[in-house]
Amino acid sequence: MSTTGPPSRRVLASSVTSAVSAGLVAVVALGLARWLGPAEFGTYTVVSTVAVAGSGLLTWNVGMAVMHRLPTADPVQATRLMGTALSVVLTTIGVVSIAMIGIGKLLYVAWGIPTEITWHAFALAVAQSINALGDCSLRGRRRFATSAAVRLAAAIGYALIAMVMLLRGVRHCLPFVDAFAVVTVVAGATACLIAGARPHGWVRSSVHELYGHGMPVTLTSLLLSVLFTVDSMMLMHYAGPAAVGVYSVYNGMPRRLAGILMNDGVGLALLPRLAVTDTRTALQWVRDYTPLLLGAGTLGFAVVCAPLCLLVGDQYGFSVVAMVVSGAGIAMHCLMILLGFVLTMDGSHGSRSHLAAVSLGFPVGIVCLWVIIRSATPMAGLWAFAAASAVISSAIALIAGWNQDRGGVTKGARR
Length: 415
Description:
The chain has helices at about 10-35, 40-60, 60-70, 75-110, 115-140, 145-165, 175-195, 205-240, 240-275, 280-310, 320-345, 350-375, 380-405. The two termini are about 15 Å apart. It is built from 13 helices and no strands. α8 (about 205-240) runs antiparallel to α13 (about 380-405), α9 (about 240-275) packs antiparallel against α10 (about 280-310) and α9 packs parallel to α11 (about 320-345). Helix content is about 85%, strand content about 0%. By secondary structure, it is mostly helical.
């Protein structure tokens, strides 16, 4: 793939550090799965997944636009972009905080979801929003080592807090959600401070830049968040929280490791480079290596499942078939993320193409989830996830290929 050159050793070291730090958070989740049990860990999984979806709505993914614009922005433009982004996000959080009073009551009446759980999920979503914006600002300014250091400090802090809580006999999931939220918001605020992001108000030109790119990304993320959150919700409905806990061990935890690999490993060096790389070349590279990526990913993530299932205890069961199906689904999910990286970092046109592709595959994916998960087993969840990931990946590849044939996704190499 043609790029501006291979990543430096410093960038690679930062990628490894970020992956290790996020992996430490996954290890904490592994401990929670073992000590909290399937039902309580299932609730923890649902709250965490909903919080991730909520953070996308709070930020409207302007962080991705910041990361796309900063590498080519001059110092004045960079300050305006980061300041505007932070001001917009903080304002949105304030407005939604007021609305949450009614939303919490509505969810309780309609679905029976305790308002306590709703507020804990919202608090974590706020923390993740600030953290995402700070991290994107650091990456956009190519301060990879600083980004990695902040992540590592946060991961170590959360691991220590969780260890103390477990030793003190805490066996309810929500205190761990709160601890993670506190550590995450502190890390995000620190990253914003170091990057130079200050909430100084809105600059109209910066708002146009951010939302012209950020809104399609947000709508895309919203659709994907719904699609890959509703699987756990459906399984909760048809099979109960214990089944969600088992499903999370086979799928949720390896999927988080995949997210670590893609966002904190591959993405740390790849995303800023894609901002200045010809998109046709990037798509062709992904196309050429797809069989290798899927094969290696399936084997790799299936192997990852084995120690996870052994470490969490007999209560979660052990199945080789489930590990292979999980590995295949997560490998396909990684391909979906990689294709999304290429289109999103193409700018506004690419982000709109990505939205069109996900919109095309979304209803089919929902139907696949519903039809398969109705059998009410954790294994059904694994098959459904793999099917939905394959549908979205195919839709993105279809739209990207169509645009490539029309010449619509080519951007010249920008410096």
